[in-house]
Design brief:
Strand content: 5-15%
Number of domains: 1
Structural class: alpha/beta
Order of helices and strands: EEEHEHEHEHEHHEHEHEHHHH
Number of helices: 12
CATH topology: TIM Barrel
Largest sheet: 8 strands, parallel, barrel
CATH class: Alpha Beta
Distance between the termini: 32 Å
Shape: globular
Helix content: 40-55%
Strand order of the largest sheet: 1-4-5-6-7-8-9-10
CATH architecture: Alpha-Beta Barrel
Number of strands: 10
Radius of gyration: 18 Å
């Protein structure tokens, strides 16, 4: 089962191309900080702007850079079932420890269609460890508790990245699925509340910038230090919110570029740089955190 802090790692670009040396440096920083795993080619990794060849290369490079020191959950989801299967098989053959599979976007399938989609992937990649990704704000569709419960009956569907922000919904999932499904927060701002109702970790955007702080937060929770965990969580709320001042990953890429110097803030269209006003807002938020930049 997947537990702990998993970083939804950004994909660094330089002059329009994937910057592999920067990716290696970003991976190394995460491993040194003690994260449980990395999730390349998710939403934060701008997966939809990558060609299939680029996506698989980013996954491969991440696995090679990690060298078995933490888990790698490869983002292979799409709105085309067979494409997802093909990418998932290739990622698994490279050595990915798990596969992050988002609900199909744009198609807006019914619950029957969602179940059939994930069932087909599960059966086609029987040895793969699948993490469902439920994020209706991005996809326009949400899994129901009943569909999640049915999917959790498949032995290789082992985790859910839950990003609705609805804690009652999350609690119902935990109550329905129990130990059969590892429930992880897909949103830093709801990480601690979700853990309190049965969550086992987080797929974090913030940990691109502050991996040690996110690991400390999880450690405090695991050690049953409620006051310490709450204090850490509340201290990070300004940055949790600030990282969505514009569409992810523009804010996180901007801050990582500024405060680590390990990569550029370059993105691919239709993503564009932050406005000057929002860059200054983020700068002030980071300054108030009183955190020395990591390098």
């Amino acid at each position: 089962m997947f537990t702990g802090v998993y970083t939804a790692i950004i994909t660094p670009f330089k002059n329009g191309q994937v910057d592999e040396s920067a990716l290696e440096a970003l991976v190394e920083r995460q491993v040194e900080a003690g994260v449980a795993g990395l999730v390349p080619c998710g939403t934060t990794g701008e997966s939809v702007t990558l060609s299939d060849e680029e996506l698989l290369r980013v996954i491969q490079k991440t696995i090679e850079s990690v060298q078995g020191r933490c888990a790698v959950i490869a983002g292979v989801g799409s709105n085309h079932t067979q494409k997802t299967i093909d990418l998932g098989r290739q990622a698994q053959s490279m050595g990915a420890d798990g596969l992050l599979v988002i609900t199909p976007y744009y198609n807006k399938p019914t619950q029957a269609g969602l179940y059939a989609h994930f069932e087909a992937i599960s059966k086609a990649i029987p040895d793969g460890q699948i993490m469902l990704y439920n994020v209706p704000s991005r996809t326009g569709v949400s899994l129901t508790v009943e569909t999640i419960r049915r999917l959790a009956e498949h032995p290789n569907i082992v985790a859910l990245k839950e990003a609705t922000g609805d804690m009652a919904f999350a609690a119902r999932i935990a109550a329905s699925c129990g130990d059969r499904l590892a429930l992880l927060s897909g949103d830093d701002a709801t990480a601690l509340p979700l853990w309190s109702v049965g969550g086992r970790g987080v797929v974090s955007v913030t940990s691109n910038l502050l991996p040690e702080r996110m690991v400390d937060l999880w450690t405090a929770f695991q050690q049953e230090s409620a006051s310490a965990a709450r204090r850490l969580h509340l201290s990070l709320m300004p940055i949790f919110d600030g990282l969505f001042i514009e569409t992810n990953p523009a804010p996180i890429k901007t801050l990582v570029a500024q405060h680590t110097r390990l990569c550029t803030s370059e993105m691919r269209l239709p993503m564009v740089p932050l406005t000057a006003e929002n860059r200054e807002t983020l700068r002030q938020i980071f300054k108030r955190l009183d955190i020395e930049a990591q390098s």
